[in-house]
Specification:
The complex is a heterodimer of chains A (about 400) and B (about 260). By secondary structure, chain A is an all-alpha fold. Chain A has 15 helices and no strands. Chain A starts with 10 loop residues before the first helix and ends with a helix. The chains are: A mainly alpha (about 400), B alpha+beta (about 260).
Chain lengths: ~400, ~260
Amino acid sequence: MKIPNIRWFSFWKLVLYASLAAGLYATVYRFVLGLGPSTNLTDQFPWGIWVGFDVLCGVMLAAGGFTLTGAVHIFNIKRLHPIVRPTVLTAFLGYVLVSLALMVDLGRPYNIWHPLIMWNPHSVMFEVGWCVMCYTTVLALEFSPIVLERFNLQKPLQYIRKALIPIVIAGVILSTLHQSSLGSVYLIVPTKLHPFWYSPLLPAFFFLSAVAVGLAMTIFESSLSAKHFGRQLELHILKDLGRALMVVLIVYSVLRVEDLVHRGVLKQVLVAGYERNLFLLEIALALVIPIVLLSFRRVRETPGGLYLASVCTLLGFVTNRLNVAVTGMEASAGVRYMPRWTEVAVTAAMVGAAFAIFGLAAKYLPIFPEEHEGEPVVAGQNAAAPVAVIQNAD
Amino acid sequence: MSKALLYDATLCIGCKQCEQACAEQNKLPYDDKVAAESRQSEHKFTVVLASTGGDKFMRRLCMNCNEPACASVCPVAALRKTSAGPVIYEASRCLGCRYCMLACPFGVPRYEWNSINPRVQKCTMCSNRVLAGKPTACAEICPTGATKFGERKELLGEARQRIKDNPANYVDHIYGEEEVGGTSVLLLSSVPFEDFGYRTDFPHDPLPNRTFAVQSRIPDFVPLWGSLLGGIWWITHRREEVAKTEGKNVPTKGGAK
């Protein structure tokens, strides 16, 4: 395997170095001075973007891992196989970064292991903590064949392949649980969260949107890496994902509207206001625009159209998570929250690190199908890679 | 039996001795500057609020809920409801996620934001004193009996009697009797509770029920979802096996791989 040279300087590389440096400085600042001076968090507003973006969005954006491994290994949709590896890599990176970000946000991060021995099964946070811990392990196992192949370690590779299906099933179960549970986190605040977002269906919404975002993220990341690494785009795969994305978005929309109607909240949409505006922004970005875009064949079947629809979906559901965590909680708290520069810097550095590590891994590890063509792939489904190559050719 | 506090605002003279006793009990500084602060904070667990006219008073402190949201959400059970009534906090367990602060419907828990080893801070209803059979510091010091310590059931009866005996003097509402499933702090007032920031639109069922309705399904859901996924895998891969076997036995067919 050839080791490509790294270009150390370019516009985006400089942006990356700047964000990593600022993030590092902000992290040191936070650990030296404490959360008070380093954030805009208060007794009235204890959770900011480190929870709203780093944790809620981070876990959501990593949902492609369970969506794709489930589709390929359980539902046996073989044609999706070539994009499983980059998606699992994204997910693994996502969860590692979420855990790191959590260490910055926790007041006593050295106690992060306490849920292992100090139990409170009634707590959603307890369950999410365990699920995230177990699922990160699952992702490490799902990702391990890539590293093992790179160093040609056949023995452990065989063990992993034998255990793959139970591992994938465990991953899907754990993801179903904690993706929905991040919504359940807010079930305890019926008196605090704005009725646009508080619903007994929060766990269902969080789960469904995680599936949608998993698909959108896969399209987004395939498009980007096709451009960045000069690879051929797996357009036939992305078309399928686009169609699946549209179906999930429609199902989500129907459920969301039904919920708003039954809770009698729909008429509040007509009343102008801060929450209303951000609610409409979310609905437009996450649901209306992508569904309209994807309903045109021209859009659904072209790289540019799919890319645009996926970016809209991602921005829309990021808005949704921030609305739940920030916008919807402001009125009851009686304060407006804007993140401090330190909070933004740490978050930006996490995003930057995700891009950087993905880029490095893509360079040094057999992530993309071309590079391990013909070799046994994750599932040990030898047929999958050649099939993909044949489909690529037409 | 469960202990409680009954605060009758009509008896309160706003002397703030409860604030001072609370500070002493919790080893917190108390001077004129602290006395002038009208908000609960990490160094002031109870405040006596005065109306703009200066003639009506109201206390704010942790309500020590019967089924506290803070304790239900804590991933490490650092917050706990004791059978005696107080909701207590064990800093050594805490990992600092601040979910308790988010979950509390009364917005009570405070954080030591300026510490690098921060604790959640709130009134714990003098749990040590209560366990030793003594009243809370605030109830013991109160010169007018506005804050009274006792059995929750008896205090509720007494509160009801006071409203009945003197209906013109009270809002017909014992705050804390039913709010979010009931609290160990009960309030009586002659002016609407909203005037002092107490919300009266709270549901009467305990908030943890909302979470538990979903969480309690998990043990049933896991084997169900697992067997469904396993079944789907078995069915979707069965076709392949069949194709493979047929391909071996009948090589002439050629089409199957």
